[in-house]
Amino acid sequence: MAVFLNNHQSLIYHIDKAPFVHDLVLLQDSGSNRQFWLPVLEDFGAQDSHSGRVLTCDWPVDVKVEDLASHFLRLVQTLALHNVHVVAFNDAVAVVDEIQNLQLGTFERTLLFPQGGPRGEEMVSAIRAFCGI
Question: What is the pTM of this model?
Answer without folding.
Answer: 0.93
